[in-house]
Amino acid sequence: MFDLDRIEEIWVTIVRNKVRSLLTAFGVFWGIFMLVIMSGAGNGLKRGAYKYIDGFANNSCFIGVSRTSLPYKGLQKGREWNIRNKDLKILKDSVPGIQHLSPILWADVINNNVVNGSKTGSYQVRGVLPNYAEIERQTMPFGRPFNEIDSDNKRKVCIIGTKVYEELFRDDENPLNREIRVNGVYFQVIGVTVGISDVDIGGKLENTILVPLTTLQQITNKGDVIQSLAVTSLPSISINDIEDKIKMELKKINSIHPDDLQAVWSTNLEKEFLLFSNLFDGIAILVWIIGSGTLFAGVIGVSNIMLVTVRERTKEIGIRRALGASPKTIIVQIMMESLSLTALAGIPGLCTGVYVLYLGNIFWFQHLENVYFSNPMISFDTALVSIIILLISGLLAGTIPAMRALSIKAIDAIREE
Are residues 403 and 308 in the same domain? Predict the structure, then answer.
């Protein structure tokens, strides 16, 4: 005759163990899944931010002029001043470590200042030297950059941004060698350019017309005036040192008080890069702390369920010990079961996390514009480290249950009902 109460008790125990195992496995699955998602999101944010500032040399700075705020040597505050062509040689001779020094001059922006046939538009006009391309990197779908001959001969040539090209020319029209009127002067188009970076320092290149600095100085009757400088340092020297020395030298040349903080402004991209780097290093550490904590909670569950398993298999373990099973065999069995449970739950969590990031990148993030979030994926190294952490955690989770199984005495286990 069947003992219905005993059968019911067995089924309840089986179901309870299965549910407990599934919940524990889900805890490990969720822990590694969240670690992957958060790490991928952190990488996407980092790539998006660096994409925003990518294109400018990370050892560069921009230095410009403003009104003085302090009187000095009999000169009143509020005085306007300008950098001059002659200052460039003084700076190169007196400030060691400069790699590229490119002056910049802007023309006055007027309404519909650029004309191509019947099409007009209002665009910024910027005068630069050929070496400016070494500081703000750019791509050129058509044509060529400036060269020294253009600059030395003050040629009336220009490079137009992609937006300027799209608005002033037909889609199938070749802009090269065409003449456009810029601020009343005809220039020959020698190239079309677009900036790599989204950083806006004095205007984006796609909305700008670049002309040789010497040409712009001549046609605007500004003589040798320069409004700002773009500077990069040698790789072995920090731009911070170069920046301070240039500013002090400019103040000395132009009789500006050394403590005048307003007269010379600067934008240091090396500091911006360092700020981003420190920020995302902190985010990465925080992600690993939170993700590892979530994974650790799942591993604690594995350890607990293995302790329950050992307790329920006390009689089995005792019999094996009585039949001559070595302590090593018992330990290996428990730890391998713990490792298997952790791996079977964690590896699918890792794969699911990677797949979710992949789908998000394909169907959503790639279609977003002006969002500083790009390619939220984890690297192979991160995935490998995650798996190693997972496996080590599985082994550690089985350590305490294995020690508990080893402490079971054969005679006591055999007596257990």
Answer: yes
